[in-house]
Every structure is written in C-alpha cells, then in structure tokens.
Amino acid sequence: MTVLGRLAGRVLGLPEVSTPDTGVAHDVCVPMSDGIILVADVYRPRGTGPLPAVLVRTPYGKHAADVRLLARVLARRGFQVVVQNTRGVFGSGGRFRAFHDERADGLATLAWLRDQPWCDGRVAVAGASYLGFAGWAMAPYADPPLAAMGLGITASEFVSSFYPGGALALHNTLVWSSMLGTRDGARLGGLAPTPLHDRRVRRAMRHLPVGEADVAAIGRPEPFLREVTAHAEGGGSGDDGFWDETDHSGAVAKTASPASFVAGWWDLFLRGQLRDFAALQEAGQETRITIGPWGHDARALRAILADQVSWLSAHLQGDAAELRRAPVRLYLQKAGRWLDFEQWPPPETKPTSLYLSDGLSWDPPADLEPVSFTYDPYDPTPSVGGPLLSPGKGGQRDNGRIERRDDVAVLTGPPLTGDLDLIGPVSATVHVRTSTGHGDLFVRLCDVDERGTSRNVTDGIVRLADTGEAGRAVRAEVELHPTGYRFRRGHRLRVVLAGGAFPRFARNHGTGEPAGAAVASLRTRFEILRDPAHPSAVVLPVWG
Questions:
Q1: Where does a domain end: 193, 216, 246?
Q2: CA distance 407 to 403
Q3: Which residue has the higher pLDDT, 141 or 321?
Q4: Mean pLDDT of all residues in the chain?
Q5: CATH number, domain at 425?
C-alpha cells in the first residue's frame, strides 16, 4: 500500500488496512435481461477464495475518482467490490434514462453476481447520491435479500426533490442535467473545478422557457431536463405516472436488508432519507442513520466512507462491535454536540406553534391586518443558501440583502431568554390570498444574532392550489427541511415569506401555464392572514 493510501486512511478516520494486496479486473461484461451488456470493474483481494460482493452502480463512470476511492478503501479492508457503469454510459450498452432502468438492471446484475464462482452468494450495496438510489432500486425486490446496505445522501425516490411542494427545483435540476450532458469530457473524474461551465449554467437559470434552458447552459438538449420540465405538473401532483417506476418508497418497509445511512442537514435528499429510515424502523428492520452538518458535497465523504466500512464489516465480516451504537446519531448545529437517540424524530421533541403575529409569538394572534407583498416574475425574489448541489453556494448564509427587499414579509420574535433546541421535522400552516389565484409560497426560518445578522436555518416552498379565482383565501401547508439546530440565548427567531426563491426554484409566472413552457408573466400580490380565524404559524420541533 502506498504512503498516500495510508495517509488518506488516517485523514478519513478509517480502520487500518487488512488486505494491502489487491487486484482489479477491468471491463467485466455483465449481460442484462434484454441482451444489453454493462461493463464493470472487480476489485478483489489477491489469493482469496469466494467472497461476498459489494455492488456499486454508477452513471458517472467507474473511473471517477470518488468511486475508485470507495472501491479501493473497501478492497484494502478485505471486501470484494464490483463497480458497474449503468446503462448507456462509459462503455455500457443501451441508452441512459435517468432513474428508469435501475431496478431491472440492478436485479439482473445481482443474479449474475450470485452465479459467479468468486462470489459466495452474499451481496451488499454501497454508494451515495444516484449510486445510493441505484441500490434502493433493487434492494426491496432482491430475493434472497441483500446482505447489507450502506447508503449516503440519497433516498428511495428523487421525484419529491425535483418538485418540492409542487414547485420546480430549477437550480438543482439544471446543475445536475448540465453535468450529465457534459460528463464525457469532465476532467479528473468530474472533481475538477469548471468555472466557465458553472457561469454558463447560472446564466441559463434565467432563460425562458425553462424547458429549453439546457441549450443555454450546455449548447444542446439534455434529456433529463426535458423530462423534468415536461412532467413538472404531473410530477408535483402525482397524477402524471411518468415517474411511478422510479419511486421505490412504497416498498421500503418490506426491505429486509440491514441498512445504514449517512445524511446531512443541508442535503437536498434529507427529507426522503429520513422517511426511508422511519419506514424501516417502524417495520422493525435493522437500521441506523447519521445526520451531520454538511450538504450534498465532499464534506460528507469522510462520514460516508467510515460508515460503510463499519456497517459492511459488521454484516459481511462478523465484526459485531461496529453495531454498538444508537440507531440515530445527529449533530446539533450551533451547539457543537453529537447526540444519540433511539428513533426519529426523538420522542422528547414537542411540536410547538410559533404564530405569525405582530412579529412572532408563541401565543395565538390577535385580530391583525394581513401582511402583504407583491411578487414580480420579471424581478423574482432571489435565494441564498439552502440545500443546493453547487459546492460553496448552499448551506447557511446571510439573508440580509433579501430581507431588505419589498417583495418579502419579515416577522421577527423577541430575544430568547434561554437556548432553544429544535430537532425534527418543521412545517408551516399559512392562510394566504393571491391576486391572480396562482402562486408559490416560500417560508424560511432564520436565526438573528445579537448584531442583527440573519442566517437561514430551514425553509420550504409549496405551489398554492389553483383556486381559479383571485382573492380567495387558501390554507397552505408547507413542509420545511428537517433540522437539528440550537438558537442561542439572546438570538431572535425570524420568519421570511415570499412568492418564490429564484433560481433555487423556477419562478411562478402567475398565469397557471406549465412551468417548462411558461414565458408570459403576471405580478401577484400576496396577503398573509394572521387573525384568530386564520392562525398562520410555523410548527417547530422543540427538544428538551
């Protein structure tokens, strides 16, 4: 093993290497049920007999640096690793259709693996993001079950991340689809900075119609963006059917494989990942989750690798010591503490309403006039931070520039007399009227420090039900991002409301036209009701 390899192991906090002598068989052919051939690399400790296999399926290429790191880390610790290029990418046959072929191809690969003389029949899956989804696409249907699952920053369905609350997640969708459209020429396995490409993608987020932003970003159509924008209304409401075969959440509870997850408070898949974990735990399956203070980025890599090594060691190599921890381990932000719990959300958490009042109040509001603002699609309310795919752009940011705009409503509570800990799901019920009968409602919870700096903690958006008439009040139920966060004594809670958060979410044009094709726009006036008959509130998971 090289000095660099030993240093990497120490930096990542991994156990010592047990099998330094490993080999790689490149471009092993794996036949699919329709005759298509997918290619894989097999990493294997030399001089061993049949071993269990850890399967990793990727659309980013088995040559990618992060995938090779995972395979080598596992192989040098005694695991046999099979890294396969998914259909239609980097030498694998067929056409890549994002999310649609992973169940059939995953199960065909699983059957092939179990028939190989160098596999002892036990197969586990590992990976993060899309690689984790590829694991979920086969795990609920594997017979016999997979030996283990070690998955990071991922979920059993991605559709709710394309259309959170029914709104189109423009930033993340265009960033990912543009990466897909240019991956063949990516340098250093896609890990090298691409400033020119990134600037073109950011500019393309303003392009109308949204369904053609791929050409503005990378100079040619990209199938994934076209699919997401074409099926936005169906994807958001669930009545289109196009994404049905990509949603495996309904089968999660039937998954008998022991599963370990790594999630991040600022990861776009956190909500789905927590739903998967809760479904497994409620079904009595063996599972655990770690939630750290990172997003969908390289900061999560160390935790994911360490988690997968320990979990696979326990279930493929019999190291039971790796199982002696609580099912839920999470980092309480701004407290600098890791906490252990038996379930999610923690049973000590109490959902508590924080009312939109004359500011914010724990008591129901008096009879107050609505707070109002006007959303202009030609000058859409911007966004900062949050769960984004772009490294260095997401997470917690100063919201001051946005809060000074006249197209937002800002409500602030009094200074806290003690620390306030939130651990769990966050939601909002807001009674709202719009002048057009259309609109998106964006709700953000912020932490205001003693100097007045306001930083985002969590947020959510919902596409308002089309009432067909202007001025009719609707009750908007908004699911915000789950959080684990400490508001310190002397800080204040702040709720910011807007008609959008661009370019994180595509602008709502106020016309009811499909999101992918809309160009014409109408300004929409919002009225947020806050009276005894319309008690708008954010529901916070108060812990302790």
A1: 246
A2: 9
A3: 141
A4: 93
A5: 2.60.120.260
